[in-house]
Design goal:
single chain; 500 residues; 4 domains; four-stranded antiparallel sheet; two-stranded antiparallel ribbon
Length: 500
């Protein structure tokens, strides 16, 4: 404004850093404009340099566009053209209060971290307190100030409120109260829909190993080659005869219990003993095979029973039993409503698949265990060919179990989707909303106490932080006033003589 365009405008300073002199010059290339920033050229010791070159000579600059805390006339256009955020940063840099501002932001960020906790027990508590019958006794646990931490007393009072509303006589003792609530809940919801009939448990892992029975079969076949077929046939009869005390310990001829007028000589008894002694290894092999067959049968039955125990109750019940308990698909569909229609359809499809595989598995186990029972009573028919046939049947059980695992996973997903909509509908229709949550809270009242104690501690810290933020903001205002006053006193108006 006051100089010719060809005149050079610059500021220059000589300073010393670490015992070495430096000359720093900044030359104005173009001033601030309404839509443009100031442009300058920086030189350190006569060489063009970047802004970060100042760090090497011990100089720390303020926030742009100022490099010194003085508000000059030629910088005013920036103040009016900059956005609110940049203008705020400008004045904070001008007044050198960025550190206070950062500290305030840090304190406020801790307040965000201390937001209300979201533990499941606290969500259940809020859900229960929304019910009219439980609102008054549970409200003291949720107060921001003067919070009650007597969890057991509050939960017991809420249970009593539910029972009064339901017209149930109040028993003595907190545990008895909740047992009564649970019983009343089950009765009311079962009349609407028996949710307890749903619920797939985890399947036990199971595996079959052919090594035991296969080895026993090989051993039995080997020993059988060493024993005469007739002797093998008569072994049970010989053993039974020697179990008769008079024959087993005989030292003289004995009457034969199988013959009308027969006599067992000492020589014949000795021969029977010798034949049995000669078949000792064969009998051991038979015992091992019998044990392996029994073990396999028990494993199969145990696996079948484990699967049955894991199935939802409605799958283990007859149609008559389901009807008596009110387990009807049409009722489930009505309760689920339009939004839950698809979840009911998917659940039905998954149920049919699981039942089909389960029935096939159960029939296969029955067939194999029946075959094992026959073999156990007639080990003479057990050989490697029979073993291979048996193990093929067991292999089919293994395949069906793999199918069952897949069907169970699909069913569990479909059931979860159904249970996402059905319980709330059942609770609403049976007028038991919040009952199950209250029962769950009682079962976890220690967890609830811990959550409330932590929440109370957070609230105290939150209030302290709010007071601290308020005090900081007030203090920052006072600091700003003092700095503005000081800067205003330091500013001197310099009149430049026009060269013209």
């Amino acid at each position: 404004m006051h100089l010719q365009d060809e005149d050079e405008v610059f500021v220059e300073i000589e300073l010393e850093h670490d015992g070495k002199p430096h000359t720093v010059r900044r030359t104005l290339l173009s001033d601030y404009a309404k839509k443009g920033d100031c442009e300058t050229k920086l030189e350190v010791d006569g060489q063009s340099a970047e802004e970060n070159a100042f760090q090497g000579i011990g100089v720390k600059l303020s926030q742009p566009p100022l490099a010194a805390p003085v508000l000059m006339q030629h910088t005013l256009p920036y103040v009016f053209s900059a956005g609110p955020k940049d203008r705020s940063a400008y004045f904070k840099a001008l007044l050198d209060v960025e550190d206070l501002d950062r500290f305030l932001e840090l304190v406020e960020s801790h307040g965000v971290e201390l937001e209300e906790p979201s533990e499941l027990v606290l969500r259940d508590l809020r859900s229960c307190s929304a019910r009219e019958a439980m609102c008054e006794p549970l409200a003291p646990l949720l107060r921001e100030k003067d919070r009650s931490l007597d969890v057991e007393q509050a939960l017991s009072a809420a249970a009593a409120g539910l029972l009064k509303e339901a017209g149930v006589e109040l028993p003595d003792g907190a545990q008895a109260l909740f047992s009564a609530v649970e019983k009343a809940l089950h009765s009311r919801q079962t009349d609407t829909f028996p949710l307890a009939d749903l619920g797939m448990r985890d399947l036990d892992s199971w595996a079959f190993n052919s090594a035991g029975l296969g080895a026993a079969t090989d051993d039995l076949e080997e020993q059988r080659t060493k024993v005469d077929a007739e002797i093998e046939r008569l072994i049970p009869l010989f053993e039974a005869a020697l179990r008769v005390e008079a024959i087993g310990k005989a030292t003289e001829p004995q009457h034969c219990p199988l013959c009308e007028d027969g006599t067992l000589s000492i020589e014949r008894i000795s021969a029977i003993r010798a034949k049995l002694q000669g078949t000792k290894e064969f009998q051991r092999a038979e015992a091992s095979a019998h044990s392996a067959l029994t073990g396999l049968s028990d494993t199969l039955k145990g696996a079948r029973d484990g699967v049955e125990r894991a199935l939802p109750l409605f799958m283990r019940s007859s149609s008559m039993q389901r009807k008596e308990r009110g387990f009807h698909v049409d009722r489930a569909r009505r309760l689920a409503g339009v939004d839950g229609h698809e979840s009911v359809s998917q659940w039905l499809a998954a149920t049919r698949t699981l039942l089909r595989v389960w029935r096939a598995l159960r029939l296969q186990v029955a067939e194999v265990t029946g075959s094992i029972s026959e073999l156990s009573s007639k080990l003479s028919s057990l050989d490697n060919a029979v073993y291979e046939t048996l193990w093929e049947a067991v292999g089919r059980i293994v395949e069906l179990r793999a199918e069952l695992d897949e069907a169970t996973a699909s069913y569990r997903g479909a059931e979860d989707a159904l249970l996402a909509v059905l319980p709330s509908a059942v609770a609403k229709e049976s007028k038991t909303e919040g009952w199950q949550e209250l029962i769950d809270l009682w079962a976890k009242h220690d967890d609830l106490s811990s959550a409330l104690n932590e929440w109370e501690a957070r609230c105290r810290v939150q209030r302290e932080l709010e007071r601290a933020v308020k005090a900081l903001k007030k203090g920052m205002g006072e600091v700003l006033d003092e700095k503005i006053s000081a800067i205003s006193g330091d500013v001197a108006v310099v009149e430049f003589a026009s060269p013209r």
